[in-house]
Amino acid sequence: MTGITAAVLGSPIGHSLSPVLHTAGYRALGIAGTSSYGRFEVTEDQLADFLAAHRDHTGFSLTMPLKTALVRLAAERGWHSDETSAQTGAANTLIRHPDRQQIANTDVIGIVEAIAECQPAAADTAAILGSGATAASAVAALHRLGLTALDLYARRPERARGAADLASGLGMQAAVHPLAEYQPGQCLLTVSTLPAGALRAESFSWPGHLDPATVLLDVAYAAGGYSIGADLAAHGGQAIAGERMLIHQAVEQQLLFAAAAGIDAPPQTWRPRLAAAMTEALTTAHTARGDRR
């Protein structure tokens, strides 16, 4: 039986939940016995050599700090880039087909699906916190969701110009602000792309009670420390856990890996099945560790 050999790469990588998700997906597809999913600590300067030394892999998931490095490497090697990676300048997936190599950015659909399943209230303007590769993915995702204006907040506003330019290129209005100027609740929809530990409880001034239609997706999912999503929920808003984005982007990755490996897994049929399997596996993993979520 055909299987998939894949792994997640990044630095640091010890916190990654990708092995739990992809292994659950293998079980759902019925290929667990012939498939594997590993985890490797890889830095930017190690990426090219690592990929060259692991040519037997069907594909890789990539997290920070490798998302922009993969795009640069793909341009150098002439690999195919999907629309989202070319658009955002960031890629989190490498797929090896029999006749070519391809990079993709499944973070965009991960953000879209995580927000869509929350069924947020209609809005024209959203806020994005952060300025890295995931901020660019958030811009593309919010454009897909029909937003027409964005306020971008960054600790170093000059670093958010790339995301602002992307928004402008997509026909969206975009303004850049210092992170300290962000006021929770000023937009009904916010996507925080800041890494875990970047914020503190005193980072913002919270109103007494938020409009219950206020929604925030916090892409960071590492346990421990301050959570802006938990704070928003405590003030009456709706928080979307970063793990929802993680699950949906992993589903898309696994479908891409399956197609490259010649496994019959029609996306319309398998997206919901894989999402359900990965959600169950994550819940089981948290229960086994005694996490409070």
UniProtKB/TrEMBL annotation:
InterPro entries: Aminoacid_DH-like_N_sf (IPR046346), NAD(P)-bd_dom_sf (IPR036291), Shikimate_DH-bd_N (IPR013708), Shikimate_DH_fam (IPR022893)
Pfam name, any one: Shikimate_dh_N
Location of the Shikimate dehydrogenase substrate binding N-terminal domain: 8-94
Pathway: Metabolic intermediate biosynthesis; chorismate biosynthesis; chorismate from D-erythrose 4-phosphate and phosphoenolpyruvate: step 4/7
Bilayer-crossing regions: none
Keywords tagged on the record: Amino-acid biosynthesis, Aromatic amino acid biosynthesis
Name of this chain's protein: Shikimate dehydrogenase
Source species: Brevibacterium gallinarum
